[in-house]
Design goal:
The protein is of the alpha/beta class. Helix content is 51%, strand content 20%.
């Protein structure tokens, strides 16, 4: 049974559609909870290497995460549904799949970027990588 849903958010329109899907799931499953996760690929270690003070890095990280999560948090808030929030740094696909596994999520919900078949085959996508390495089912929303 699905009780813990991890919603990957990147600020895109497809991510917002995925948020709507996750919201509908949470509302239809008694006791279900949803956590929105966003991953920033630029890490603290990279910032330190470039001489960026920790305080500046964390302020920028919070500002970016708030901007990416804003629409999703508003959507859940309008419906009065609780939404937890997680911000990670590093490889996006590995961070999402790893967090889901470490915290025993039942389902990952995420949007797709909508690459065409050729471009998607050449570049790959975060959603494809998450599907390959996640321990649980992954729902992608266009």
């Amino acid at each position: 049974m699905v009780q813990k849903i991890l919603l990957a958010v990147d600020g895109s329109e497809n991510a917002l559609r995925a948020a709507g899907f996750a919201l509908d799931l949470v509302k239809s499953i008694p006791g279900a909870r949803c956590t929105a996760i966003t991953v920033v690929s630029f890490t603290r270690e990279e910032a330190r290497y470039l001489g960026v003070p920790d305080a500046d890095f964390y302020a920028a990280l919070e500002m970016k995460a708030s901007r990416l999560l804003e629409g999703t948090e508003e959507l859940f808030g309008r419906e009065g549904v609780a939404l937890d929030r997680v911000v990670l740094q590093g490889d996006v696909a590995r961070s999402i799949a790893g967090y889901a596994g470490e915290n025993r999520y039942d389902l990952i919900v995420m949007g797709t970027r909508g690459h065409g078949n050729i471009k998607g085959m050449l570049l790959g996508s975060v959603s494809s990588k998450v599907i390959q390495i996640a321990h649980c089912p992954v729902v992608t929303v266009k």
